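Course exercise 7: structure representation. Students receive a sequence record and must write out the corresponding structure in token form. The form below is the worked example handed out in class, using Amine oxidase domain-containing protein (577 residues). Read each field label carefully; the graders check that inputs and outputs are placed in the correct fields and that the protein name is recorded exactly as given.

STUDENT ID: A-19
EXERCISE PROTEIN: Amine oxidase domain-containing protein
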Amino acid sequence: MPPRVLVIGSGLAGLTTAYLLHREGCEVFLVERSDQLGFHSSSIVIPRDNAKVPWGQEDWVVDVPMRSFQGGYYPLLIALYRHLGLSFTSADFTFSFSRLHAPSPLRSASHSNRPTISTYFIHSGSSGLSLPSFPHKAYSSFIALLRHSVRWTIFAVCYICLLVLSFISWHTLLPLPRTLSALLDSISDLPILYRIIGEFIHEIFVPIFSAVGTMTCSDVLNTPLDTILAYVHNTFGTSHYALAQHSARDVARLLVEPLRIQGGEDHIRLGAEISAIRMTTKASRDDRPSPTGDQAFKVSLKEGDEIIVDRIVIATQASAAISLIDMIKGMDSHEDQRRVDLFKSALYRVSYRETIVVTHRDYSVLPRDADTRDINLVLPDSSLLHPTTESSYGPTPALSSTWTSRSPSNYASGPSTPMEPAFHQMSMPYFRPKNDEVYTMATHIIYPPSGFESNGPILQTTNPIVPIASGSVLGIARLERALPLENPDTILESLSVAPGSSDEASHKIHFVGSYAHSGIPLLEGCVGSALRVVKEILESEGLRTRTNKTPLGHVDWTQGLGGRVGRLWRWRARKLY
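STUDENT ANSWER:
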């Protein structure tokens, strides 16, 4: 009889795990506390507004958060999407880098008194293979143009040095400082070099990775350097991608559909909350013997149902995983207690940052039209920083009373939607810039698909540092995003189950999620951790040998590795999963 596996959580990690286990012959149950699948639960749906929409496309789904991905760093995700038959398009995003300045006290009352956004650098996309362009202020005078040209040259040299460092780190050719902060400290005795490299790191490098990892600037500076350099090395010269005619809703539907076919709604429990987990030796409703071995998990739901399974995969955030482990009763052996302590110790070391994502049409968060790009990164000027002791959340009178919405002439404001009144006059959440917690405000311009042009572009701002005009808001999502692990090898080893482990219950508990994978916690980590756990389960159940070369889930996982040149650049003597 095939093993019965319960997957708790329906983010991409949980859905991928359930999908692959099903394809490998396991009987899979999926439990999600929310009433909809987690991977697209925050998405915004814009209803069809005219007859030009292609047949079968009744609405425009805006993924929240942004679900774009980049070649080189997402080979497993790309392979999974291609296996599912999803199409995606290349999107060589352009970037603007700007500073948010406080309103000048010298401006007259007749002028707008809102903070201003000043752009200091523009990146033209293609992950380092294109030439940057200058912001509009570079053309204000010959001196300004000369100054920006010198700065561009210095940043170009710094970027080449960064690529060299990433190559050294990728192949472990030389020992490097542990973090960016340590790197800067190592050259602090060289004032000119320290100033040049420090400016590049703080003005370019830190904003990008603050946006990529949705973390504070200090988090970036204290992230393991090899983690950041691995991202630089793997993404060099690659394109960004976005799902073409599909969305996260389609991904979730395709991954969960086999489970519906397998056992109907009995195997997919949405809006279900677990009330207890106990060790047992018999199945529940018909008193059948446990499918394999003497031990099984009896999972009780608050709705009154019970599910008997052989293994549990926890696909939640680390904090929720700890609560679920504490809920399991009957793991009394010395080995079980040792493993539980190991699990909890590892999970407690996973840190999170709250993330705010606002989907809206308030163009005030963008730089002036000439400097606006696909993705616009804004850092607060030092004059806007607040003491560390103050709350991290807005609104603050200094900004909320002066920040007004605008709609540039080259953007259609679009019709109002039924969602807007719900946010009217609300206090919009944002992160007040603090001395030790500075976020990069990242605003992505999302253009409408064919048939929805009259809606105009939509903006998606992640970690706003100013309040968004309430009348322009389409949706607000507050999420928690894991930070990169400080000691990934140790933590991941603690969360893994080695093949041939004992039959104790604690060896039948598995963990997946973006945090349960090396590197920056992104969608790739969700798929990578799912592959690791599926392999653990199959080998532990005797359904697969360690020497088996058949792709897990019968998916060609090599089709996301890119062309020959890219594979050669990213080659390293390590397994794909």
